[in-house]
DNA sequence: GATATTATCTAGCGTTGCTAGATAAATAAT
DNA sequence: ATTATTTATCTAGCAACGCTAGATAATATC
């Protein structure tokens, strides 16, 4: 069975190379530059091989997004762990969120902006998505009764900050002030 | 000069037909269905004619977005005017924002999600964009000293609500509760 | 060694945004 | 009134896209 196992490993490794290439190209040149031909070139196989791994281009973007969610929830959890007091944790997580969005712009775009079939708050929600939500909920929980409600609102505000800043519609310089305002509002919720 | 004037009018009218067609197709079938060929078909001219009106496809999307901003700020201003008390106005505007985003999804997408060169908070900001910001600022102003800061935050939260709800990532049923939470937080700002 | 299966490739379809070069129509100059 | 010039428009096509059918090579099975 060892040959079959090696083949399986090779396949998995090739699939990972596709995802990695997509991620690198997206980060450097934007998602428009991530074409099937370009990826095929990068992994040194013909284009149809990609379709033996992924149903279509969107599935490749989704695979990158999943990777992103893993790192994202790790970053948020870390931020919460490093901060001591509860209010500090809230602010640390909010800052970590915005830092992630800014320094992994293409990744964040795949996760939250580009059309995708990945869903939240549904039975078929991917565990990676759940983990990210849980990381936010954890730092919000001490301040409220309806955790889900406040977490959704916290998340939405952060997403709005990230998006409007990315598209140059709010002032980058006021970032900390906005975070402070948000954290203050949440920590004073009944 | 009357012939030249008529020509100018005809041209302007044709340009408007392009924008209108783009808007209708986007609303019915999504922005991917808005192709140059399709628009050319719709206005019954050849494709190159479109490029005598707009530099490229993105410019057509931007033209639709500008229309959207006009209607958007009108909707927000109306909501504020119809509401009496200040807190009520805040909530009315928040609700109007989300209703607009939901019932004009393609328009909202052109305004805030699709890549565009339209900018906020810059010297070259379009007046249509300024008006929308001003409409939000007007209802926020009574509750805070730093109006710009709180308006940005208000806006970001609403944008996050709209986007996360559109992509199925927060619960549509909790919409009113989230608005109430946001309005409560803003109206208690020092 | 013949047969079936799997892995991969070449070649191409239909569509996209966009443009060069040709043609027809309107205007200006003689 | 005829010619020249500018303006408006079209036909045709390029390069690139996502994706796939059908052919070929490599591997496994009998």
From TrEMBL, chains A, B:
Entry-linked Gene3D superfamilies: Tetracycline Repressor, domain 2 (1.10.357.10)
One of the Pfam families matching this protein, by short name: TetR_N
Molecular function per GO: DNA-binding transcription factor activity; transcription cis-regulatory region binding
DNA-binding annotation, residue ranges on this chain: 35-54
The keyword Transcription appears for this protein: yes
Protein keywords: DNA-binding, Transcription, Transcription regulation
Domain of life, per lineage: Bacteria
Domain HTH tetR-type: 12-72
Stored PROSITE patterns: HTH_TETR_2
Record's signal peptide: none
Name this polypeptide is given: WHG domain-containing protein
């Amino acid at each position: 069975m060892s040959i079959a196992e090696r083949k399986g490993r090779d396949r998995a490794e090739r699939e990972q190379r596709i995802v990695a290439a997509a991620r690198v190209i997206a980060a450097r040149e934007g998602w428009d530059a991530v074409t099937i031909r370009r990826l095929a070139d990068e992994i040194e196989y013909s284009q149809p091989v990609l379709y033996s791994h992924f149903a279509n281009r969107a599935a490749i973007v989704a695979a990158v997004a999943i990777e992103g969610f893993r790192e994202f929830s790790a970053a948020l959890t870390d931020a919460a762990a490093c901060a001591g007091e509860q209010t500090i944790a809230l602010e640390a997580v909010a800052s970590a969120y915005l830092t992630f969005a800014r320094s992994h712009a293409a990744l964040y775009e795949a996760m939250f902006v580009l059309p995708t079939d990945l869903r939240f708050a549904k039975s078929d929600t991917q565990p990676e998505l759940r983990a990210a939500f849980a990381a936010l909920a954890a730092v919000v929980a001490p301040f409220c009764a309806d955790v889900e409600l406040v977490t959704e609102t916290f998340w939405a505000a952060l997403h709005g900050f990230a998006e409007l800043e990315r598209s140059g519609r709010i002032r980058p310089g006021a970032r900390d002030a906005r975070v402070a305002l948000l954290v203050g509002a949440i920590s004073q919720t009944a």
